[in-house]
Amino acid sequence: MKLQLDCLLFLKMIKGGFSNLSKKVEKVNRLNVFPVPDGDTGTNMKLTLKSGIDEIEKQDNCSDFKNLLSSFCKGLLMGARGNSGVILSQLFSGFSKYVASTKKIDAIFFAKSFSAGVDIAYKAVVKPVEGTLLTVARKASEYGLKEAFFSNDLKIFTFLILLFIIIVIQMKNLNFFKFYILNL
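and the corresponding structure tokens:
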């Protein structure tokens, strides 16, 4: 049986992502080197996600993707911290516009939705710089689109995307990171 994503499972994924980021926030902070090495990317993303989750919980409207994502994106945008928070809010904004009219999502639809989010995030940044969160999102999106057509099973697709992102984030040397990401 192929796994499809519904509204409640998506909310669980958002909260799980927040929980995992919260545990790794200092590690993500150490990856932060652009535009200045201020070491706050993980913290900003965590606070931004928390604002989105808080907005969902205030509204208590998880009846469908449109309501859930509308609340989540409002919270993300209003609570966005730093460049990474704004980019994260825009990734979900683009994703939500693509997803708003559906009830369940399979791997192909998820990949296309994520790609729409990447497009919106790139447009939101005046001068996008490669080797940043935008690049990781774009490369994960490109990889995801290929893999989704390989297996439309959302469980397999999600595993492959997470594995790809973990490998990318493990790159400690920024020059290698830029080379690796830009040459995939």
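(Above: one complete record from the training split.) Residues 41-182 form one domain.
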